[in-house]
Amino acid sequence: MPTKLSLSVTDQSPVHDGAPASQGPRDTLKLAQACDQLGYKRYWVAEHHGTAGYASPCPEILVGHIAQLTNNIRVGTGGVMLTHYSPYKVAETFRMLSVLHPGRIDLGVGRAPGGDQLASAALSYPRRQIDPQAYPHQVYQIMGHLYDNLPDDNPFKALETAPQVDENPEIWMLGSSDGSAEMTGQLGSAFALALFIGNHERSPDIIKQYQEAFIPSPGLAAPKHLIAVAASCAENREDAFRIAGTRAMWIFKAMYQGVIVPLPSPEEVEAYHDDFSDQEKAAFQLQLDSAVIGTPKDCRERLFDLADQYHSDEISIVSVTYHFKDRLKNYQLLAEACGL
């Protein structure tokens, strides 16, 4: 078991306290500044489109603003959803961020759409949507543009990626399966294993597969990974589970009822739960069971246990609560419990 654990943040910019969606990015900025002072290692912003309860459709803009308002924490995306974008444009954007904030920018990428089919169609209009199967090639193109090492037969070989930088962003590929892990290793990228997506079991062997498949790249000489988990920490277990119910209920409604709702308050969660059938209660409980929930001591033990299982010295924390104060307190308690 590791004796020292780095904590990072994956922020989905939830809309707290029933406020207008415009408050979500503002709360992200507040939380990022607090986590910078608390000693967190990275602050990644997610990408969602047309999704009630979340307010971060363009994480690259938030990355620049967060980096300007913080001093030490690395700032990046968790992640840019590549099925919507040109690899060259993504490379240029993150080159610019790296010029403005040298040594502090992470480019995390993924292939999920971050929204429904209508949002995906609107993002690509009037072009055709990019086939998700092109994702590995898109990452390969981004790396080629950033590292200036596209092969001679590539049609964009002679194209300069501006502006020039002394240090490129760190490239991370986000995944939740062994297929993602092997692909990430073959491309020579760092790997973020998203344990907070879904509630299915993911074997620690996924990390071994990534490491065995790893081929060094100009940006990364040896394999590098972290795991991302959902966590809800409070002074007592009752409060921790009450707070965690908001995220669990949002996911339950999206996955099992096909309904995307604003984040429900703890009182709304209780009312929904009271009307559930036994089968629905079991499905809701699965969402809670897949997260780290409890007191600071509980959470510390569980986080270090996960770090040991997945051979990771860094865990990124996903926290979605109805009240912003509960989310801020969550990160404060976890930082203290893990000795940041």
Largest sheet: 8 strands, parallel, barrel
Kindly give the count of domains: 1
CATH superfamily caption: Luciferase-like domain
Query: Strand pairing plus helix content: what structural class?
Result: alpha/beta
Label the overall shape: globular
**Per CATH, what is the topology?**
TIM Barrel
User: Distance N terminus to C terminus?
Assistant: 17 Å
Return the CATH architecture.
Alpha-Beta Barrel
What is the CATH top level name? Alpha Beta
Number of strands: 10
Beta percentage is 5-15%
Uncertain regions spanning at least 5 consecutive residues:
none
Side by side, the strands of the main sheet go 1-2-3-5-6-7-8-10
**Helix content bin:** 40-55%
Summary of the model, kept short:
With 340 residues, the chain is an alpha/beta fold. The chain has twelve helices and ten strands. α7 (205-213) links the parallel β7 (190-194) and β8 (225-233).
Structure description:
With 340 residues, the protein is an alpha/beta fold. It has a single domain, classed as TIM Barrel (Alpha-Beta Barrel), CATH 3.20.20.30. Helices cover 44% and strands 15% of the residues. It contains twelve helices and ten strands. Helix 11 packs across helix 12.
Provide the fold topology:
Layout: E1 6-11, H1 23-38, E2 42-45, H2 59-69, E3 74-77, E4 80-81, H3 87-100, E5 105-110, H4 117-124, H5 135-147, E6 170-175, H6 178-187, E7 190-194, H7 205-213, E8 225-233, H8 237-256, H9 266-274, H10 278-289, E9 292-294, H11 296-309, E10 314-318, H12 324-337
Parallel strand pairs: 1-2, 1-10, 2-3, 3-5, 4-5, 5-6, 6-7, 7-8, 8-9, 8-10
